[in-house]
Specification:
The protein is an all-alpha fold and about 240 residues long. It is about 70% helix and about 0% strand.
Length: about 240
């Protein structure tokens, strides 16, 4: 209790009168412990020898590694899952991983990943109805998984240089179902917002958001998007800009 109380006020000068008492009591405590307490055994120095004994024992039991020592990443997960002998285990792994990656990446491009999620849920529903786990389902889930990781490739195919443009395109294309119009409108919006997004602290400036809203609104009206949808789309595009730009 004395040492804890002293520790509270150290290194203030108020502790100085008690320093010698503390040192005296500490020496006495060590003497008493050495005289009456059995010495403890510290395994720190023998740690490597103990670990070697454990490793040798485990090898003698012929226990196989369940997982590869390499880190499992998004990119090597399919290879890792395919090593499982159980078809049911492989299918369950890839199904759950596909759900996870879609959930994690969805905020970057909501419409792109929402379409993948809907396809995934349809496959899951079909699988549950048939009560069957098969390689066919594993491959269907694997296709969804690959597409979830291939968003950048899809973006480049459409000619967009930034994730922001691709995300805006997906939102617009879901309404008009016209690739050409969606691409043209996306490019206009991206160009119009570029100057404003170069300003320091634009994401928290009300004036910046207001100007961007007006610009986006004008472009959407010009491109003849449904009036009842324009306000919703405008806010969504601003949210995407704050996330990506």
């Amino acid at each position: 209790m004395f040492s804890k109380a002293l520790d509270v006020i150290l290194p203030k000068k108020e502790a100085e009168p008690y320093n010698e008492d503390f040192k005296y009591l500490s020496r006495k405590r060590i003497m008493i412990r050495n005289s009456y307490e059995a010495p403890g055994h510290n395994l720190r120095l023998d740690g490597k020898k103990v670990q070697q004994l454990i490793d040798d024992y485990v090898r003698s039991l012929k226990i196989e590694d369940v997982m590869d020592q390499r880190e499992v990443t998004y990119n090597n997960f399919l290879g890792y899952a395919s090593k499982f002998k159980s078809e049911r285990a492989r299918t369950a792994l890839i199904k759950n991983k596909a759900r996870q990656i879609i959930r994690e990446l969805a905020p970057t491009n909501p419409l792109y990943y929402e379409k993948l999620r809907e396809r995934l849920e349809r496959i899951i529903e079909n699988e549950e109805k048939r009560r069957k786990q098969s390689a066919d389902y594993f491959n269907q889930y694997a296709d969804i998984y690959k597409e979830a990781l291939a968003e950048e490739d899809q973006r480049k195919k459409l000619g967009f240089s930034t994730p922001f443009e691709f995300a805006v395109y997906e939102e617009l294309e879901s309404i008009k179902k016209s690739q050409d119009l969606s691409k043209t409108t996306t490019e206009k919006i991206s160009n119009r917002l570029s100057e404003e997004t170069k300003l320091t602290g634009w994401k928290t400036k009300r004036s910046s958001e207001k100007k961007m809203s007006i610009d986006i609104y004008d472009i959407l009206v010009e491109s003849k998007y449904p009036e009842k949808k324009i306000e919703e789309i405008t806010q969504m595009i601003i949210d995407l800009a704050k996330r990506h730009l």
